[in-house]
Design a protein that fits this description.
The complex is a heterodimer.
Chain A lengths: L9 H17 L4 H26 L2 E4 L10 E4 L1 H24 L4 H26 L3 H19 L5 H32 L4 H7 L4 H17 L9 H7 L2 H26 L6 H24 L3 H17 L11 H36 L10 H4 L1 H15 L7 H14 L2 H25 L13 H19 L1 H9 L8 H4 L3
Antiparallel strand pairs in A: 1-2
Helix pairs in contact in A: 1-2, 1-4, 2-3, 3-4, 3-10, 3-13, 3-18, 3-19, 4-5, 4-10, 5-6, 5-10, 6-8, 6-9, 8-10, 9-10, 9-12, 10-12, 10-13, 11-12, 11-17, 12-13, 12-17, 13-15, 13-16, 13-18, 15-17, 15-18, 16-17
Chain B lengths: L1 H22 L3 H22 L8 H32 L12
The chains are: A mainly alpha, B mainly alpha.
Chain lengths: 498, 100
């Protein structure tokens, strides 16, 4: 034990948790102040973490000075900070949005009372997840974020929300158990929970394969990969809009993040080609199936939720490029593409859900036909939707373009036809389901707004939408951030980035 | 030998629990099944902690954390299910593919 060691990254976990406790006690009194301070402190912690990362390179932090295998280790590298940056950006926009979203009616006030502590706890748990490199700590952060997410879905108390949240809860718990079982097998084989130590001690064989399969199965359910996606649309669509934004942009990324970390961390010795290929197939199927279902939906939030199913598929299409025999150049390009896609989808999807919340608030209904003619009344929101849509469809300069392009070039280089077909078809289908929304927004119908939405709601959505274009334009800083501490065997492509 | 018996029993419990979670329609039965599966996972951790000599304390500490999580999650699920029963009178989840 070397004494009390805390770096700036501890603030990313600590400040939201502190804010949650304070908000649970003080309730509505001084809420704006507490929320504002929490957001500011968390942002400062992120900036300081980034500064430290840029000056010293990837670093590790043992909480309280207790090292592995007994303590919990954090690893701060480019991938972690990129995801933390996404989380902080979405979190700040969602928080500002939520201050205005929950109004003054008694029902709204009651919901806000529960929303704030739960949301800040969720935020804190997600930051813990992104910082960790400890297999059991990931189980804990998955459960913390999962339980908070379920409570947030159930917030409205409506029957559909309760059903959606219960289904999510049961599946999430079962998935965590599968993951936990895999972790236990890894621990019994290696005597450690620290990813780096496990990787050093694990030998390929049936035990390693069983552990990888269990962990993969659990995380696939957690990140709603096809065919385990069926819990997602009802859960995400029945939640209040700011909650939907957080769920689709951040919470489902947790499962992907752990899986990507585990696979790259244990690669290549203990990762089976079959598992990687299987994930790729499921990812491709998710892109097509999710997009087709999105086109068939009649409710705005269900269209967006099914689009999440599709967009998550792209993340998993990167895994087959990590198989034995693929060059490091291609493998690293696919890895960077997946990380980039996680960020671009997070920003665009959060913007889309926040904008959807404005439109639904304005009309008091959520069927697609209620959108007719709203574009003329709410030009800011319509712009936000259009910008986020550009990113989702993968049109440059949206942030969704480059990750898909990187995967496309990886596939071309490897001579794989199927991923290319899926990438092109997926983009076209995205145009299909998004234009069902845009066409109605831009219709020349004359409508009367039920409730004119507060300006700040529109601006929060627009802010994220603009950010989803800016991250598309600033690909070099993002790729060079990813290069810092990139996992071994996944750096070649990033080294060639200027 | 003892470790093997415990491990096999643990895996059997885990599979049994997951089976019940998937096939039992009643929400309370689903929850009981989930707890059986958790018990299986925890039992495996306790069993694998013994590798000759003194048992490894780390898995035991993990089991404690796991139990805390499992108890709170169960309590939360019961509250949700009870609330849903009051709202709708339903004790079963619908077909997952059906839109609520």
């Amino acid at each position: 034990m070397t004494g009390w060691t805390l770096g700036p990254e501890a603030g990313l976990v600590g400040f939201p948790a502190l804010g949650a406790v304070v908000l649970a006690i003080t309730a509505a009194r001084g809420r704006r102040l507490v929320v504002g301070l929490t957001l500011a402190a968390t942002l400062v912690a992120l900036v300081m973490t980034l500064t430290r990362l840029l000056s010293v390179g990837a670093y590790e932090q043992d909480i309280g000075g207790w090292g592995a295998p007994l303590g919990i280790g954090w690893r701060i590298d480019g991938f972690a900070v990129l995801m933390l940056g996404l989380s902080v950006a979405v979190g700040i926009a969602v928080s500002i949005y939520s201050l205005a979203y929950f109004g003054d009616e008694p029902g709204d006030r009651r919901r806000a009372l529960f929303f704030w502590p739960l949301w800040f706890f969720l935020w804190s748990a997600l930051h813990g997840l992104f910082l960790s490199r400890d297999l059991f700590n990931w189980y804990v952060t998955l459960e913390l974020s999962g339980l908070a997410a379920v409570a947030l879905i159930a917030l409205s108390g409506r029957a559909d929300a309760l059903t959606g949240s219960l289904r999510y809860l049961l599946l999430a718990l079962a998935a965590s158990l599968l993951y936990l079982l895999g972790v236990v097998v890894l621990y019994s084989a290696t005597g450690s929970l620290d990813l780096a130590q496990v990787a050093a001690r694990l030998t390929p064989g049936p035990v390693a394969l069983a552990a990888i399969l269990l962990i993969t199965a659990g995380l696939v359910v957690k990140s709603a990969l096809f065919p385990a996606h069926f819990w997602l649309p009802s859960a995400h669509a029945s939640a209040p809009s700011p909650v939907s934004a957080v769920l689709s942009a951040l919470v489902v990324k947790g499962g992907f993040y752990i899986l990507a970390r585990t696979m790259t961390g244990l690669w290549p010795a203990a990762v089976a080609d079959g598992v990687l290929l299987g994930l790729g197939w499921l990812g491709g199927a998710a892109v097509l199936w999710g997009s087709l279902l999105a086109i068939r939906q009649q409710h705005l939030k269900l269209v967006i939720a099914y689009s999440t199913v599709a967009q998550l598929g792209y993340l998993f299409m990167a895994f087959p490029f990590w198989m034995e025999g693929v060059g490091e150049q291609v493998a690293s390009r696919a890895w960077a593409g997946a990380a980039y896609q996680a960020v671009s989808h997070g920003l665009a999807k959060a913007a889309l859900f926040l904008a959807a919340g404005v439109l639904i608030h304005a009309r008091g209904r959520d069927d697609l036909d209620a959108l007719r003619g709203l574009g003329a009344h709410l030009p800011v929101t319509a712009t936000a939707m259009a910008l986020a849509g550009i990113s989702l469809m993968g049109i440059p300069p949206g942030a969704g373009f480059l990750p898909k392009w990187m995967m496309m070039t990886a596939a071309i280089q490897e001579g794989r036809i199927l991923p290319i077909v899926v990438l092109i078809t997926g983009g076209l289908l995205a145009v299909g389901y998004l234009f069902r929304i845009f066409r109605r927004l831009l219709a020349a119908d004359d409508v009367v707004l039920a409730h004119p939405p507060p300006r700040i709601l529109e601006l929060a959505a627009l802010g994220l939408a603009i950010l989803s274009i800016v991250t598309g334009l600033s690909s070099l800083p993002i790729l060079s951030l990813l290069r810092i501490g990139a996992p071994e065997g996944f750096a070649a492509y990033l080294e060639s980035v200027p | 030998m003892t470790v093997t018996i415990y491990s096999m029993a643990a895996i059997a419990l885990f599979v049994l629990g997951l089976y019940g979670l998937w096939w039992q329609p009643h929400l309370l039965r689903k929850l009981v099944s989930l707890n059986i599966a958790s018990a299986g996972a925890f039992l495996l951790m306790v069993a694998l902690a013994f590798r000759g000599g003194d048992p490894d304390p780390v898995p035991h500490a993990l089991v404690l954390t796991g139990i805390v999580i499992s108890v709170s999650a169960t309590a939360f699920a019961v509250v949700l299910a009870a609330r849903r029963y009051r709202e709708t009178g339903a004790v079963e989840l619908d077909d997952p593919e059906e839109r609520p």
